[in-house]
Amino acid sequence: MIPMSVFVSKAVNDIAVRAGLSRDAVKHCLECALAEAVCEFFGVRQCDVDLDAGTVTPTFHVGTEMKIEEAEMFSSGPLHNDLIPAEFTFEMFHKRIVNCTLGLFKDIIREAGADALETRWRKKVHTAVEGVIAEKYPDRIEVNLGEEVSGVMWKAEWTPREVTSYREGKLFFFYVLKVVRKRSAVHVHLSRASIGLPGAILKTLAPWVRVKAMKRIVGRKVWLRIAPAVPAALLREVSAHLSGEVIESVNLQAQGSDAHYEKLAI
């Protein structure tokens, strides 16, 4: 017969892949759920879990959580107030423990997944990401970002001159303004009107450049300070992603204590 721990190990690997978490993270979630379920079942406060060995070891307080006669099964000469660890294998679990563990694990793994998702997206704040418009409403646009996050661009962040092109299925670059967590849901607030979007798109296409937005007239023109200089073709590509918005580049190249400026309008 295949030990229960083998099935648990396979399940941990499968869940890790589906949830986008590391195997160690999923193991920790399962250990927490199992420890809590066992503590609840036996009415104890402490329980150690070893998934690899397929055992749980709740600690009983003799006299309150375990009778002396029961304690004698796990320790010789037990006395009142002794703390007695009692080891059980997975195969010995009562059905109530299994059901409770599954319920707790679903909640814990959901929170862990949301934590990991939130962490990943917080690293993307003030950068440009690609997304597909899913739904358009009078006050907002919902965006599919390819993960289990809710992308939203409120009307104040729209570019007025391109509103007619905001159609379902259309792919755009968006600027990540902020990430908001509501329980297990991660909401990413996006913008097409931010002064940071043109430079963020350029950084996506050319990660080695340093770029700073000096001014932007949304939908019409943006002034960027860039170092080192970039080809005009690259700026035209950024302009295309901004629905033709004109890009004026000031390329700054330090030469000793002096600076050389090159002005280029695309």
Q: In terms of per-residue confidence, which ranges show pLDDT below 50 for 5 or more consecutive residues?
A: 254-266
Largest β sheet strand count, sense and barrel closure: 5 strands, mixed, barrel
Give the termini separation. 72 Å
> What is the count of helical runs?
6
The rounded Rg comes to: 29 Å
**Order of strands across the main sheet:** 5-6-7-9-8
The pLDDT mean sits at: 86
Total beta-strand segments: 13
What is the CATH fold-level name of the largest domain? N Utilization Substance Protein A, Chain:P, domain 4
Shape: elongated
Helix percentage: 25-40%
Secondary structure category: alpha+beta
Question: Roughly what fraction of the amino acids lie in strands?
Answer: 25-35%
The CATH architecture of the largest domain: 2-Layer Sandwich
Please write the CATH class name of the largest domain: Alpha Beta
Count of spatially separate domains: 3
- The H/E string reads HHEEHEEHEEEEEHEEHEE
Question: How does this structure look, described?
Answer:
With 266 residues, the protein is an alpha+beta fold. The protein has three domains: 4-122, N Utilization Substance Protein A, Chain:P, domain 4 (2-Layer Sandwich), CATH 3.30.1480; 128-191, OB fold (Dihydrolipoamide Acetyltransferase, E2P); 197-265, GMP Synthetase, Chain A, domain 3, CATH 3.30.300. 33% of the residues lie in helices and 33% in strands. The protein has six helices and 13 strands. A five-stranded mixed barrel has the order 5-6-7-9-8. A hairpin with a 3-residue loop joins strand 5 and strand 6. Helix 1 crosses helix 2 (23-42), helix 2 runs antiparallel to helix 4 (95-122) and helix 5 packs across helix 6. The radius of gyration is 29 Å and the shape is elongated. Mean pLDDT is 86; it is low at 254-266.
